[in-house]
Amino acid sequence: MNRWKGRTALVTGASAGIGAVIAKELVRHGMKVVGCARNVEKIQQLAEECKKADCAGSLIPMKCDLTNPEEIQSMFSAIKQQLKGVDVCINNAGLANAEPLLTGKTSGWKNMLDVNVLALSICAREAYQSMKERSVDDGHIINLNSMCGHRILPNADIHFYTATKYAVTALTEGLRQELREAKTHIRATCISPGLVETEFAPRLYSQDPVKAANIYSHYKALEAIDIANAVVYVLSAPPHVQIGDIQMRSSEQVT
């Protein structure tokens, strides 16, 4: 990770869960990390924690609603002005709404598409453009995917969410191919966890706390730090090594 010290990473959805832990780990490794979310106050608290822990890097909170393309563009403009640009882009933000294919609300589907697919694609594009204009040839774009991007579970509540994660699988490989065609050494990777104990289930089943809690009651799920460690592993790989996807799940998870 030494080559990343002092360089800039963007982590979307950094206010809680996996994103917050990834941001903290990258700061610990000496990176300047822009953490974005709608709830910027939580990132500000995390930034203070990093300062008190005397981390080698720094965390810069930025407020951004990823469902709004104009706000994403404004965020990248602010990063360019304050930090020159992005060297690592970690598209962590994602969400699931319990909206089945036969009965789900269009608004819920659109919300998932806006965050899980469109915002991810816009951030990847803008990160690449930032790298290109500064002749950064060793940058990295990491998309937080899911095991749902590789198989379909018999759970109607997450079928549309699963479709967005299949999109992330395709987008990451497409990105890798386009980066090769552009004759650059910028790399693209996705990380596909199984069940991780975060705010994901409570948000998915916000109207049914018992159902949300039950999801984590059957076995020991992955923790956010496990995903952060995978991110560090990917970034630590030698420049000639292209890691396409890391699929990981709890040793007790069946599907």
Automatic annotation (TrEMBL):
Main EC class the enzyme belongs to: oxidoreductase
Molecular function GO labels: 3-beta-hydroxysteroid 3-dehydrogenase (NADP+) activity; estradiol 17-beta-dehydrogenase [NAD(P)+] activity
Pfam hit, one: adh_short
Catalytic activity: 17beta-estradiol + NADP(+) = estrone + NADPH + H(+); 17beta-estradiol + NAD(+) = estrone + NADH + H(+); a 3beta-hydroxysteroid + NADP(+) = a 3-oxosteroid + NADPH + H(+)
InterPro entries found in the cross-reference section: NAD(P)-bd_dom_sf (IPR036291), SDR_fam (IPR002347)
Protein EC: 1.1.1.270, 1.1.1.62
Keywords, comma-separated and alphabetical: Oxidoreductase
Function: Catalyzes the conversion of the 17-keto group of estrone, 4- and 5-androstenes and 5-alpha-androstanes into their 17-beta-hydroxyl metabolites and the conversion of the 3-keto group of 3-, 3,17- and 3,20- diketosteroids into their 3-hydroxyl metabolites. Exhibits reductive 3-beta-hydroxysteroid dehydrogenase activity toward 5-beta-androstanes, 5-beta-pregnanes, 4-pregnenes and bile acids. May also reduce endogenous and exogenous alpha-dicarbonyl compounds and xenobiotic alicyclic ketones.
PANTHER family per record: DEHYDROGENASE/REDUCTASE SDR FAMILY MEMBER 11, DEHYDROGENASE_REDUCTASE SDR FAMILY MEMBER 11
Protein name, entry field: Dehydrogenase/reductase SDR family member 11
Organism: Nothobranchius furzeri
